[in-house]
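Hi there, hope your week has been kind to you so far. No rush at all, and the record is pasted right below.
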Amino acid sequence: MCQLIFGVFLVGLVVSAGKVWRTSRELNACKDSNLHVGSRAARYLAEVQGKDSGSRATLAGNLRLKLSSRVAVVRHLAASLVLLGLIGTVVGFIISLSGVDPQKAGDVASIAPMVTKLIDGMSVALYTTLVGGVLNIWLSINYNMLCTGTVNLITEITALGERHAGS
């Protein structure tokens, strides 16, 4: 179960890194006024060209929604890490309790295998909870950095659009 959680984390990390790289590249291009054909900023400038302020505000709102929604997958992957950790906790408790036989609880020779099974299940429960929680924090930090970059990109693109519309 911990391997599954770590696998989901790696997917989230790769997706997050790709989105951070793309956002950073677009933000740097906007600041340098070196827009690439087909970039988000170039498309936005083409859309706002010749539009009035109300239309530009609507287009800016649409841009905000599009860019904000593209980072949501990282937030969902981070949240799934916690859920997988909790599922691992439940699985661990099921493993723990599956080894307990109330009929044999009085037999001293039967106690050792039951305790072993109990410990095995508890270790699954605790490790999956720990791994899911820690990796959720890590991916959530990446998500927050990505959100900050996305807000900066939205601000830069809309400011560029307003400057372009004013000229």
Notes: Residues 108-166 form the longest helix (59 residues). The mean pLDDT is 90. The chain has one domain: 2-166.
